[in-house]
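Render this sequence as a predicted structure.
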Amino acid sequence: MQAVKLLKAALLATMFAAGAVAPAWADRGHGHFGRDYGEHGHGRHGRDYRHGHDYRGWGLGLLAGTAIILAATERRPVYYAAPVYAAPPVYIPPPVVVVQRAPVVAVPPPPQAYVEPAWWYYCAPAADYYPYVQTCPAGWTRVSPAPGW
């Protein structure tokens, strides 16, 4: 940044120095010092011409050139379009689905069918029970089994 300012100041000083010197040379005419000698188109002929050149606008040209160069090298703020921000994404939670289960009912076990207790068969003449006695001549007597026997 400092280098740019220094360059601008040096350029401006050079341009003004050249502009200040230009009027001093404008009056010179190859040793004729601006007099109208009427030879070879030198001197004044109603306007300030030297060899067909017009030197009247040097100061204005240097000033305009300096202004253009300084304007071209001047730092300007850069304007950008306003940023466009997208809206944040909208979060829509999924619907809550509750599956209701049928209530668990404890089914009681089916009632036990009455099972007739196993009977023992007693043979009185042999004084023993079946299967220890295979045949009983008097017939079998059905006996309820006693617990703990």
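Summary. Residues 117-149 form one domain. The longest helix spans residues 2-26.
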